[in-house]
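Ticket reopened. Same input as before:
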Amino acid sequence: MRTSIFASGAVAIAAALAFAGPAQAAEGDAQLSVLHGVPGLTVDVWVNGERTLDDFTPGTLAGPLALPAGNYALAITAADAADATAAVIGPVDVTLAANGNYTAVANLDAAGKPTANLFTNDVSQIEPGKGKLTVRHTAAAPAVDVLAAGSAVISNLANPNEQTLTLDPGTIPAAVAAAGTTQPVIGPADVAVTEGAHTIVYAWGSLTDQNLQLAVQTIEGLHSAPGAVPGGRSGAADEGAAGQAIAVAGIGIAGIALLLGAAAASRSVALRRVG
Amino acid sequence: MRSTTTSQQSGISADVAGVAATPVAGKARTARAAVVLAAAALLSGCGTPATPGPETAPPAPTSGAAVPAASPAPSGAPAALPDVPLRLATPAPAAPRDPAPRFLTVEGTTISMTIVDVSVSPDGAMEIPEAFDQAGWYRHGPAPGAAAGAAVVAGHVDTASDLAPLSQLKDLAAGTRVTVERHGAPALNYRVRSVELMAKDKFNGGSLFRRDGPHQLKLVTCGGRWLDGKQDYSDNVIVTAELE
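Engineering reply: fixed in the latest deploy. New output:
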């Protein structure tokens, strides 16, 4: 089964935030992770004017940070800036819904300009036996295809979009190629898809600068249980029929039952529960 | 379809006998024998108190919870330089898994069977091995010997015409030893803690397949009444065992 979600990753997409998942954080806090996807730039990240991440380096994932639902201003400055006024990215206003799960990404847009995107992470339960894989295009590169073992599983994904697959768990040799081609510009790299977990892969960097690469975020604990344990085939172990046999014969051995006294009574209780 | 009529019926009596002693083929038996043996079965099995264990009040389910890959983040509003977990987001190999179980033995029974890894059927149910003398381990959940959660091993209670070894599960006494051999790891000895019936129409998968809380082994098969209309049993038999 495959589900596709194309959601604009643009910052402040309030509509998308309405999809905030079911309760998962204590106290209803939103969970915010931050990914640094701008090559060659060490930065500080500011939330509402407070320095939150210091000397944040490319390829690093921070969080999740539990934040009360509400509006936040995110800004990214050069490392060790005195305050958030001279932002290199932002400030951008984001709305975090109660219990929502988000990843803010500092990245390059398709043309190579530093920007930021707020993605809403799907933390809904995953059907048993499956894992989810989302690919987000956050690189300075044209639209891409994602190839697994040589064939496209995601097609024509453009910055800053994402697409989600529901897959059998396993390790996928994933490669990224320009849309419509099969020559990898990233990978192949092994990406683990874990049952009950949402694996989110970011393509980041710059095609021009030849530093495209993958970053991976994993959200675990989204598993669900099988809906049943079937174990019957023919009815040969039918307790009901056995119970009838016992009941009919039980009349004949009423005397024995009386001799057994109180124990017999408790057995009949057990029998009713089983039957 | 069950009901090959008389032989089936006698098979059931014999089945009860088989629980108390050794499994027997579907030979005709006298009513008296059935009664005596059934009474023995009640004494040894159905009389086993289905003690509500801690598993009936499982910890709050974490299903749906977003568990961070890294350590938990501090909660609260951002202060200056909060202690936010950081990690390099480079692709990592799948986490190593606990050794898989390979063989199940239950003391005092004829349960001596291979365990194979199973997943989920297209209808969302746990897969059960076709062979009546094999049990399936739900490989997406905890393994026997895991640090936390319930390892679920299940198999058929019957064959096309007779009882399967796991039909003896419902009669296990508390304290019965259950041994699970594993691939590349020492065998584990468990002791039966309780035997319970869970109605299939009130199936609580979150409890049975829980992935956190104290480690237990759950041996599961079918039981209760055969419902012709559903071609299924009314209940699951669930044996809960804990490591010695």
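Chain B is about 15% helix and 30% strand. Chain B touches chain A through 98 residues (CB under 8 Å). Please confirm and we'll close it.
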